[in-house]
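Field notebook, page 568. I keep forgetting to write these up properly, so this time I am using the form the group agreed on. The chain and the ligand, FE2/S2 (inorganic) cluster, are recorded exactly as supplied. Prediction of the bound pose follows.
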Amino acid sequence: MKLRSQEWFGRKGKDGFIYRAWMKNQGIPDDEFNGKPVIGICNTWSELTPCNAHFRQLAESVKWGIIEAGGFPVEFPVMSLGETIMKPTAMLFRNLMSMTVEESIRANPLDGVVLLVGCDKTTPASVMGACSVDIPTIAVSGGPMLTGKFRGKDMATSDIWRLSEAFRSGTVDEATFRASEGAMCRSQGHCAVMGTASTMACMVESLGLTLPENAAIPAADSRRKVIAHMSGRRIVEMVKEDLKPSDILTREVFENAIMANSAIGGSTNFMIHLMAIAGRIGIDLSLKDFDELGSKIPLLANLQPSGQYFMEDFYYAGGLPAVLKELLPYLHPNVITVNGKSVAENCRDAECFNDAIIASLDKPFKDESGMAVVYGNLCEKGAVIKPSAATPELMQHRGQAVVFETIEDYNARINDEDLPVDESSILVLKNVGPKGYPGMPEVGNMGLPGKLLNKGVTDMVRISDGRMSGTAFGTTFLHVSPESAIGGNLALVEDGDWIEVDVAQRRLHLDVSDEELARRRSEWKPIDLGIDRGYVKMFIDHVEQADQGMDLSFLKGNSGSKVTRDSH
Ligand code: FES
């Protein structure tokens, strides 16, 4: 087979000279250009993405594997997204990052690519970009942090929510709160719970885009380097086999990923990212698929925030292969993965070493997991709740709305002693959807009113068009579509309106007559964001709603790897 890279390096005359000569300033011998598969290592390393800050070392392990297998490794940077650092929200830039990945792969002489991914958005953005080019691709996750240790207790990201509420209510002092920071983030790697980063690592493994065991090996464990090394070896073989994402990512594979995500209690963000990836590879997925396929799957992993343990424990207990083995009766077992083997073959020898962390189908941690998708006049295209992170007693509830028009309005009033709210109220937050707060921030698990926290209230029904951190929990209805900023009925809710939620019936209803809603609509004006230029303007103009994956409409699909114009 003719390698794509030979379109550059195999040329004679001036063009070949130029393509090779400048590469040689890195000390590359001439025979490297004579038909070795050129493998790009697409590196999301950045010191501003702390979860990926160890990726230069990880790339070295990948390079070793590529060289051993006869490939020619070239590492290149792409935009990186640090979840905790970037303002206003890293999600605003997921699609932009995917463009940097896509165009970097297509524009360069690459025959295959290794995606180094870690912090939340770096995984879906990289996979989206790679799918839109569709050359042989393997992903390597950076791995989770070691479990945090603070004053005799384990801790990780989900504890931030508990600690900050305790700090607000005065039961934890500032010195203690501050001291816990370094204890929680004590090693390289991404969040140590089943938050969005770990969910994404499990997603790429269950999609068959990584070698088995990729998801859970801690970043600090030497076996993380081994899997990077082995992935380097494998990508060279994949180029020879011409095994591309489109050969792996069938409809059945997406269904497997949905079921696997339910079994591990993965993040609600999974839905948005999986739909965006499906859109790039041409698979039609809808919110209903997540509910129909995922919501009856038993919870097999006892991991925070839905459960008790951490990613490090998950790895020692057998990791994702042990879960997939247990889940095989539900899965499509014969779909292939990057190593050329089927899911069933890959997990045949997997074992569970700790049944407190990985359960059997006979004795799951919960009979049903996954996401529930609710509909009603408040969310005609759907809203999402993660029942395993919610309070069972609140899953059927009728309460009066306490409305915040924006996140700034919420921040200004949530601790007001005069806020007319009690524990039966329903907190409603508007204008935090894809367009309304461009990027759809993770504010849907809005903290509870200060005066209720002081009374010991720990959960309330919350509704918004925003997202929720994968590390968070609560009875939160998220991703309301259509969002309020484009005139979804969420925009019309007023203080004191009665709202009915009934997760079992998949219902979210605003108890206001159609006539009254029509009257309010006639007076409604969209929020003025004052954004008239740059990437954010493009994002607002083209971003799709949460129920479709929030990609930019013109990025959907695949342009292949061919460069159509060639100036040389
Ligand atoms: Fe990077 Fe949680 S902040 S994974």
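OBSERVATIONS:
- Residues 37-146+187-346 form a domain with the Rossmann fold fold (CATH 3.40.50.2300).
- The mean pLDDT is 96.
FOLLOW-UP: compare against the apo run.
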